[in-house]
Design a protein that fits this description.
Keywords: Oxidoreductase. It comes from Oldenlandia corymbosa var. corymbosa. GO terms for molecular function: oxidoreductase activity, acting on the CH-OH group of donors, NAD or NADP as acceptor. It contains 8 helices and 7 strands. The protein has helices at 28-39, 51-59, 75-89, 114-139, 163-183, 209-222, 232-243, 266-276, and strands spanning 19-23, 43-48, 65-69, 94-97, 145-150, 188-195, 254-257. Helix 1 crosses helix 7 (232-243).
């Protein structure tokens, strides 16, 4: 696969000799992570339900990658995923539980149905739990490994997403922290990545170029860090760091990739500017 990452040459082989499973790896953040992990020497197993997309990416990885159909909400499919990865590559070093879905953003609690909530829970939380459980099953005997999750910046900020989505991402962040306490005794590191809004297929942000531009224009307008648009590759870079030996003593961390959005309250800054510069 041809590298699309300009920094790959200077940080090559950061995952050399490692085997990684990436759920939701056929598109969005997952696909960006597949490319980046592969460029850095990992053997990568792509797990998704988007068979055509997943197989197309896997075909570019050659003998160092493969695609396995997996609905992460179904335990038998997760078991097959993990066991197949170990059977093919002999080990599992990195489990990146990235697969997730969204509902209607900012829908109120009265508009949120129980089936909608259960659907998000089944994929986002149960899927992450099952991925971690069966990764731990094969990592504990080796007393080594790295388990990652994709959470969201909404775990640090109220009103950033729907209630159902927020519940699932808080659950993922809490699971990651709790697992780090249990699995540390086996040498297994557990961390999560929490991105700000990024245009991916699950939010309909890249169906067309026009939609991408509209989404990015809105996000850039409210973002704290100006002059930069958050991309799936940025999130994948954070995951790469946590998966690599450079983060060899990092565990229990929720790495927020949001340009400082959730630690800044712009109300005071804007009020201050208006008070002292009312004509600007």
């Amino acid at each position: 696969m041809t590298s699309t990452n300009p920094s790959a040459s200077s940080f090559s082989k950061r995952l050399d000799g490692k085997v990684a499973i990436i759920t939701g790896g056929a598109s969005g953040i997952g696909a960006a992570a597949v490319r980046l992990f592969y460029e850095n020497g990992a053997k990568v197993v792509i797990a998704d339900i988007q068979d055509d997309l997943g197989q197309a990416i896997a075909s570019k990885l050659g003998e160092n990658g493969c695609y396995i159909h997996c609905d992460v909400s179904k335990e038998d499919e997760v078991i097959n995923l993990v066991d197949s990865a170990v059977a093919k590559f002999g080990q599992l070093d990195i489990m990146y539980n990235n697969a997730g879905i969204v509902d209607g953003f900012f829908s109120g609690i009265l508009e949120t149905s129980k089936p909608d909530l259960e659907r998000l829970l089944s994929v986002n939380v149960v899927g992450s739990f099952l991925g971690a459980k069966h990764a731990a099953r094969v990592m504990i005997p080796r007393r080594n490994g790295c388990i990652l999750f994709t959470a969201s910046a909404c775990v640090n900020l109220a009103g950033f997403s729907s209630h159902a989505y927020s519940i699932t991402k808080h659950g993922i962040a809490g699971l990651a922290k709790n697992l780090s306490a249990e699995l540390g005794q086996y040498g297994i590191r557990v961390n999560s990545v929490s991105p700000f809004a990024v245009a991916t297929p699950i939010c309909g942000g890249n169906s067309t170029q026009e939609e991408i531009e509209r989404s990015n224009a809105f996000v850039n307008g409210v973002a704290n860090l100006k002059g930069k648009t958050l991309t799936p590759e940025d999130v994948a870079q954070a995951a790469l760091y946590l998966a690599s030996d450079e983060a060899g003593y990092v565990s229990g961390l929720n790495l927020v990739v949001d340009g400082g959005f959730t630690v800044v309250n712009p109300s005071m800054v804007n009020a201050w500017a208006q008070f002292f510069n009312p004509n600007e």
